[in-house]
Design goal:
Blueprint (H helix, E strand, L loop, with lengths): L4 H6 L13 H8 L5 H8 L11 H22 L12 H11 L4 H20 L6 H18 L3 H21 L1
């Protein structure tokens, strides 16, 4: 197994409530020439749903359980049944309940992101300078990329537009 002392130690710290210190493309440039071709290929095609590579099977199971809980609780809130099986986890149930009770979608996303970072930290464990850490870092960066897609002002404007549209329909009845 390769060791990545310099590469891992040169990467900026990631925080679920912080900004992206680099883009995923910049991360890939750091990795190019410092990892095997196979590892680079896996990193290049990485998504939060990936299952191929170090750490990713365990992450996929944890992420699948989290998303299963989210879908089940959303279905129940809508009065529908959720027919898919998934591994139930008490912590996921609490986190998803908090997500669904959040004041706004941005707060809900932050709660979910905080939990996903904690899951990744648990899965990486005591690994320090190997592919487990590298893939955990890459997944965190991908999750932060998703967070960057949310623009508070655009979201507020769209919410206001949708709310006004609903009000107009209600008033026209």
């Amino acid at each position: 197994m390769a060791s990545y002392y310099y590469l891992v130690s040169s990467l900026p710290t990631l925080s679920s409530d912080g900004e992206m210190p680099m883009t995923y493309g910049e991360f890939l440039k750091c990795c190019q020439g410092n990892v095997s071709e196979e590892t680079y290929r896996l990193l290049e095609s990485l998504t939060p749903a990936s299952t191929e590579g170090p750490l990713l099977k365990d992450w996929a199971a944890a992420y699948g359980s989290l998303m299963g809980e989210l879908n089940q609780q959303r279905s129940l809130a809508l009065g529908k049944t959720y027919g898919r099986d998934f591994d139930k986890d008490g912590m996921n149930s609490k986190v998803i309940a908090a997500v669904l009770a959040a004041k706004n979608p941005l707060e809900a996303e932050q709660i979910l992101l905080d939990h996903e970072f904690e899951l990744l930290d648990t899965l990486v464990g005591l690994h320090m300078f190997d592919e487990q850490v590298l893939f955990g870092y890459a997944l965190k960066l991908k999750l932060l990329e998703r967070k960057n897609c949310f623009e508070k002002e655009k979201g507020k404007a769209e919410f206001g537009r949708l709310f006004r549209s609903i009000q107009e329909r209600v008033y026209s009845l």
